[in-house]
Amino acid sequence: MFNWQQYRHIEAPGWKLSWAWETKEIIWSMLGAQTTVQGDCSNFRTNPLPHCCDKRPVVIDLLPSAPQSMKVSNCCTGGVLPSFGQDPDNALAAFQITVGLAGNTNTTVKLPQNFTLSTPYGSGYTCSPAFKVEKSKFADADGRRFTEAFMTWNVTCSYSQALSMGARSCCVSFSAFYNDTIVPCPECSCACKPENTTAPAVVGYPTSPGVNQQICIDPRTKYEDLPALSSGGTSPPPPPSAPDLLYCTRDMCPVKVHWHVKTNYKEYWRVKITITNRDFSANFTNWNLVLKHPNFNNFTEAFSFKYKALNPYGPYSNDSAMFWGVKYYNEYLLQAGPDGNVQTDLLFKKNADFTLSNGWAFPDRVYFNGDMCVLPSPQDFPSLPSSSPSLNARLSLLLVVVVCVGSSLMVLI
To answer: So which residues are the signal peptide here (predicted)?
Structure first.
């Protein structure tokens, strides 16, 4: 399995790959992975029994602690699959299966059907039918002799955020040094805030299967007083199937990205980026952030993130960049709380189009872990003081007052 996506990786607990056998095939044994169930193998009298007799096996990766005898190269990461843009050397997974009852000729071996690939955040992948390609070749240890596979086929799975989830998972807020207003995430960006949040801490779990109950914690609650995280041990842990436990906010997004225009120098300008995790039940491993802005063509430095230009239009023009954490420093975005954020400063060299007016200094698009975030409306962007509607209104009112006073004085004279 190759993950060719530039900035979408698969996090723990990892990927699940499934297909349907065309005839009565079984899996005798596996290396580097395993199936979730064995299925009905009562027709077999062998010892050991087949690894899986299910008509539709579901394959998952082995954990890193698996015995060495069960491993193959590029396996056993717990299903975690980095993106190609972030970690190309490890953006692949491999496993071996021994198939039985399939025959050994071109007429008896049938291609599996209905491949599906699912991830912890939903089944947003749509897989193509299997199609035959040129047979794979394998070199001996000395590289002087090659053998080839009996048959090779490919399956391509494409991702759609709309299919993966019903709501967005992140939003963006803006601020700037020249305006005191902080533009928050749009209301109901990911979900709408529950109405019954008057208590200092509001925590709930579905009372029965199939009941979708909003869960959030009042932001006024002190971190040490959170029921699910208290050290006293009186609160039961959330069930594995419980929805994410979030702060109660107007946008109800698990992740917020804040873009602050920090400084305007003579030849450069500076932006501060803060990514905040508001989810008490999830950490983000090897997170990444993609930003789209026209000044990335003259990007200078990211001070505490790793950076890669995506160059969607070739090497001579770039308006998109990917950022991720530094290993052993900020590669983990921890759960909500005092340490649940990462931040950096970005330094740009001004190009000919640079301006602080009309929202030019803010990004066109923002992606977190491959999902597009909800941005504020352009009319809500922080504006320069000279373009403030309220300021213009005050100046107009002041002008009218001066004219009236002047006229009165002329009459008196």
So the answer is: none
Q: Report residue 169 CA to chain centroid gap.
A: 8
Strands annotated E in 201-286: 216-217, 246-247, 255-264, 268-277, 284-285
User: What's residue 405's pLDDT?
Assistant: 33
- Per residue in 44-56, pLDDT (tens digit) is 998 999 999 999 9
Pairing mode, strands 216-217 and 246-247: parallel
pTM of structure: 0.79
DSSP-based helix, strand, coil % in the chain, nearest 5: 10, 30, 55
Which tokens is 250 given?
Answer: 């107007």
For residue 289, give the amino acid letter. Answer: L
Find the length of the chain: 413
Nearest to 252, CA basis, from 191, 336, 173, 185: 191
What average pLDDT does the segment 205-224 reach? 57
pLDDT more than 70, % of the chain: 82
Ramachandran area for residue 311 (φ above 0: left; ψ -120 to 50: alpha; else beta): left
